Amino acid sequence: MAKSLVLDGLPVAESNPAPYPWYIMEALKVLRPPERLTVTQWADKYRILSELDSASPGHWRTSRTPYLKKIMDAFNDISIREITFCAGAQLGKTAAEQNMIGYAIAQNPGPMMIVYPTEKLAKFTSEKRLQPMFELTETLQHFDKLNSKDLELNFGNMYIALVGANSPSDLSSRPVKYIFFDEIDKFPAWSGAEASPEELAKERTKTFYDHKIVRVSTPTLKTGYIWQGWENAELQYQYYVPCPECGEMQVLEFKQIKWPEDADHSEVRESAWYECPHCKAQIDNHQKPQMLRDGEWRGDKKCTGKARKVGFHLSSLYSPWLTFGDVAEKFLSSKDTPSLLMNFINSWLAEPWVNKASHMRSDVVMEKQLPYERATMPAQAQLLTCGVDVQLDHFWYSVRAWGPHLTSWLVDYGRLETWADVETVINRNYADTNGEIHNVNLACIDSGYNTDEVYVFCAEHMDVAIPTKGSSNPLRSRYTVTVLDKGPGFGLRLYNFDTNQMKNFIASRMPIEAGAGGSWNVFRDIDREYCDQICAEQRVERKDKKGRITSVWEKISSHAQNHLLDCETNNSLAAEILGVRYLMEPENTNNEKSADQDEDWLGLDDDWL
Question: Which is it for strands 235-242 and 249-250: parallel, antiparallel or unpaired?
């Protein structure tokens, strides 16, 4: 019995039979070039949303989130190499990224890497999101599940490697044409002993002239990957929507959301509206969908010629699934708790977190500047200490000079990469304002990381360096000493110290006027980074199970960097070990005779006869 032929979903009339048997015609479909579609067109035609991955499973419709069209279609622009999408929650950014992934597989295959914050998340996404998408979408059903693993998906003509950002070997193991970074701001800053996860992965694309790199994430800090990608983009886009009343195009901003002053949280959710900054018209939630459909991306170009790096920024105010009241209520419930407020700023407004309270505290350190230059010290300084904070693959250090009354002056600080750099710092010559040369008298090196390496280094430099370790429990004294090497010779000693006491000491110096006795000073033109790190912790009271209250130092936020504060606590320990608190004012060393003595050089007034 002859089999009827179905070609592209349409039956072929029996009166016009195919020139070849049906099975040959079916096989020839493989040779047909792919349709010339954009990512948006491909997604609207083929993408099926899984119930495991969407609250609205079924066919994808870009019309629901019209702001995603230009972002997805930027993937088709041959001149664009990097796409950064800095976005808030509930905007469909993950689905847009998956559409680009599906389009690449179906239309322009090539080896691909998708990087997630952790390997565990990569495995979850593979099982619950990507594989269901491949099985449901017609043009992706050549997915070879039998010969695939959770973290390596095969399609015959290409593969996808899913890796965790904390695995440097996986990031640098294979060349790829496409790289997708998902929630890149949750990546670690460094990957093992190597460069950042982003740089390691980007190195894999060098052999592909037409490579594509896509970053998608909510931001955290200004120094985070996604915000840096946005700021470094050669073409920055923001989404403008028209006011339903006056027609003026504008970017939606949180400050324009209004609500009755006396409304409680539940009432705010129902009563908030958006106020047009141009005509002051009240814009309600039911008007937002049409505003989104009539909106457009407008770019600010930083380069001449075609942009290779483009960035898109979008807050949750644009989400079709959130009302203006939802955003207002979220703010009211978050504003009094720093961690919740940070989440609102990051995940809803898609802006980096700036801890203004910390910035104000760091102004106190900025006010400690004195008119001396970096790498020098005032003439009244008598001793030099160095504090080193050891990280997994790098170091932070600060050098501080000390004088009578526990007065101190910052001499130098920074980041180091190798032990040879540490050796250079502690052996360097430092001059005072009179030109006299000083060297570091004692360097305290934190042994929390790379403990064995710290011990070896200190053993080789026992004349100037000692290993230290912050105590997890309060100590009766400022520090205790443990002999590590009880063999012949002096032996290597580990100094355990009370970090709370040392931080209390630094804090107690802050109210003293710069330059006064006992003050804690810094050189002129000090960087804000140093001041922010010194103020990265705050003293809080904690009550234990027995009701006892103790004061401890904690980071003001999970993202605050406190490496230089740790360096300065080690400097304070070094000063304590050297006995800086007992330094005396120098005596008058001027051996020249007074004018009267010069005139009476014979000593007549002394009745020498």
Answer: antiparallel
Return the bridge partners of 283, or none.
274
> Under 8 Å CB-to-CB from 206, ≥6 apart: which residues?
175
Three-state DSSP at 256 gives helix
Tokens of 539: 């003293």
> Which range of residues forms the domain containing residue 196?
39-244+296-322
| Within a domain: 598 | no
Taking CA atoms, 17 is separated from 1, 28, 515, 518, in Å, by 15, 16, 99, 100
432, with CB counted inside 10 A (0-12, 13-18, 19+), is buried
Q: How far is CA 448 from CA 414, 518, 576, in A?
A: 19, 30, 20
- The two three-digit tokens of residue 82, written as one number: 């990097």
**Distance between terminal CA atoms of the chain?**
149
Domain count, the chain: 2
Residues 196 and 73 in one domain: yes
- Furthest CA-CA distance within the chain: 149
Give the Cα-Cα-Cα angle 579, 535, 423 (nearest 5 degrees).
Answer: 55
Q: What is the pLDDT of residue 358?
A: 52
What CATH number does the domain containing 53 carry?
Answer: 3.40.50.300
Q: What share of the chain is helix, strand, coil (3-state, %, to 5)?
A: 35, 25, 40
90 is a domain residue: yes
Instruction: With residue 283 as reference, give the H or E element that holds it.
Output: strand 282-283
Nearest residue to 219 (alpha-carbon basis) of 536, 559, 563, 562: 559
Q: What is the pLDDT of residue 456?
A: 93
Residue 584 carries which side chain, given as an amino acid letter?
M
Conformational region of residue 579, where left means phi above 0, alpha means psi within -120 to 50, and beta covers everything else? left
Digit-coded pLDDT (tens) for 32-59: 666 789 999 999 999 998 887 777 788 9
DSSP assignment of 432-455 equals: ETT--EE--SEEEEE-SSSHHHHH
Is the domain of 412 the same as that of 313? no
Identify the residue whose tokens are 């000493």: 481
DSSP 527: -
The CATH number covering residue 369 comes to 3.30.420.240
Contact 231, 87 (CB under 8 A): no
Say whether 513 sits in a helix, a strand or coil: coil
Asked if residue 369 and residue 220 are part of one domain, the reply reads: no
Region 279-284 average pLDDT: 95
- Strand 465-470 versus strand 493-497 pairing type: parallel
Tell me the pLDDT tens digit for each residue of 317-359.
Answer: 999 999 999 999 999 898 877 778 889 999 999 998 876 545 5
The H or E element that residue 387 is part of is strand 383-390
Query: Starting at the edge strand that comes first in sequence, how are the strands of the sheet with 282-283 ordered?
Result: 257-258, 273-275, 282-283
DSSP state letter for 345: I
Beta-strand ranges (E) seen in 50-196 are 58-59, 82-87, 112-116, 152-154, 159-164, 178-182
What residues pair up with 59 in beta bridges, in sequence order?
A: 48
Quickly count: other Cβ atoms within 10 Å of residue 463's Cβ. 7
